[in-house]
């Protein structure tokens, strides 16, 4: 039986996506718990401050300057497991972007010739604190093809 989505959680996820695509650093930061931690597709672990400084702020700057844009950014097969004030959301993200490439220290560097795209699987952990949902943890993974048998 499908779990009913809390409307405030769904609204947070939609708002966070919009603010991410717009490069709104303050808006994205306010959607995250102070204890936030993530593991990216390379296994690199970052807390909230480190993720904002190394990853999102450089990308947001490029977005706001018109040097980078997401050309496709769609969550698919999104599923929810609810445990009181904790929610686990899993799914796939299909994303394509142009105008930036990975630089040193897990950050973004403008490159007008660069483009990339792919699908990753994600697990997001949300907590409800003082009636507000916040993103507390995230892990991204690139699907691996099964070995040839």
Descriptive overview:
A hairpin with a 5-residue loop joins strand 4 (86-102) and strand 5. This protein has 149 residues and is α+β, with helices and mostly antiparallel strands. It has 3 helices and 6 strands; from the N terminus they run ααββαββββ. The chain has a 6-stranded mixed β-sheet. The model has no long low-confidence stretch (mean pLDDT 92). It has a domain at 60-119.
What characteristics describe this protein?
6-stranded mixed beta sheet; 3 helices; 26% helix
Q: Specify the number of helices.
A: 3
What is the average of the pLDDT values? 92
Task: Outline the biggest β-sheet.
Answer: 6 strands, mixed
The general outline is globular
Q: Percent range for helical residues?
A: 25-40%
| Computed structural class | alpha+beta
Share in β-strands: over 45%
Biggest sheet strand line-up: 2-1-6-5-4-3
How many DSSP-defined strands?
6
Distance between the termini: 36 Å
| Helix and strand pattern | HHEEHEEEE
Low-confidence stretches: none
Radius of gyration: 16 Å
Seen as an oligomer or otherwise, the chain set is single chain
Secondary structure topology:
Layout: H1 7-22, H2 25-30, E1 32-39, E2 45-47, H3 48-64, E3 69-83, E4 86-102, E5 108-129, E6 132-141
Parallel strand pairs: 1-6
Antiparallel strand pairs: 1-2, 3-4, 4-5, 5-6
Q: What would you say about this model in short?
A:
With 149 residues, this protein is an alpha+beta fold. The protein has helices spanning 7-22, 25-30, 48-64, and strands at 32-39, 45-47, 69-83, 86-102, 108-129, 132-141.
């Amino acid at each position: 039986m499908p779990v009913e989505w809390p409307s405030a959680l769904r609204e947070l996820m939609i708002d966070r996506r919009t603010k991410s695509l717009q490069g709104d650093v303050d808006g994205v930061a306010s959607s995250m718990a102070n204890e936030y931690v993530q593991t990216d597709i390379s296994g690199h672990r970052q807390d909230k401050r480190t993720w904002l400084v190394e990853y999102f702020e450089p990308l947001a700057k490029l977005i706001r300057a018109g040097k980078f844009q997401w050309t496709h950014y769609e969550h698919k097969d999104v599923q929810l497991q609810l445990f009181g004030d904790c929610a686990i959301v899993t799914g796939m993200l299909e994303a394509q972007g142009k105008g930036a490439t990975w630089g040193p220290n897990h950050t973004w560097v403008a490159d007008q010739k660069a483009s990339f795209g792919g699908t990753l699987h994600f697990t997001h952990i949300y907590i409800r604190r003082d009636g507000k949902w916040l993103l507390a943890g995230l892990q991204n993974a690139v699907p691996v093809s099964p070995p040839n048998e």
